[in-house]
Amino acid sequence: xxxxxxxxxxxxxxxxxxxxxxxxxxxxxxxxxxxxxxxxxxxxxxxxxxxxxxxxxxxxxxxxxxxxxxxxxxxxxxxxxxxxxxxxxxxxxxxxxxxxxxxxxxxxxxxxxxxxxxxxxxxxxxxxxxxxxxxxxxxxxxxxxxxxxxxxxxxxxxxxxxxxxxxxxxxxxxxxxxxxxxxxxxxxxxxxxxxxxxxxxxxxxxxxxxxxxxxxxxxxxxxxxxxxxxxxxxxxxxxxxxxxxxxxxxxxxx
Length: 254
Known about the structure:
Structural class: alpha+beta
CATH architecture of the largest domain: 2-Layer Sandwich
CATH topology of the largest domain: Alpha-Beta Plaits
Largest sheet: 6 strands, antiparallel
Helix content: 25-40%
Distance between the termini: 15 Å
Number of strands: 14
Radius of gyration: 18 Å
Number of helices: 6
CATH class of the largest domain: Alpha Beta
Shape: globular
């Protein structure tokens, strides 16, 4: 099982400072660029592929220790696009070029590099159980029809499995497996805050940022793979705009 990654390198066209590392403006700028290049592909990613890829937060390539979010003209930043569908990522790459403009948060960048790779989720050691996650951008989950700003077990597992089933349809989780995993999972530690962030159409969402440990009874490799996928797919709302990103917060051997 592979996750395909496109690393989009950015060059600042003027001195500027990132106000956020995530947000709908990243999504909108990327979609605007794709729409200008290939209208049919734009329609596809806006509809049938919307849940089949995610976009990371924006990172400064070599951050200044005193002001890690500042960028002088000519300095580099990047973000990444992920999917379980390698042809989809290759199509993204084919519709982006060095020199293309991407503007978000009132900042101006040109694309400098496009680097594609495939990342295997298999043949790695099991993640530790409990699994320690650090939610690094606001995470908003759906609990039924209501939004949930804390990664409670059911909405969190439901989101993970929905992403798994979109990214790896050849190896679906069924309803029984989903309910069994929810019943066997509990939160053993959580620390963090709820943070407001701008979302679509000038609305705000309130999402969780902090650390959570999930303990799983009858833990096995399939569960480890599921949580590894989540570090690429994100969870909850806005995963094509850098929301819902988590990482493992102690070093994991690959």
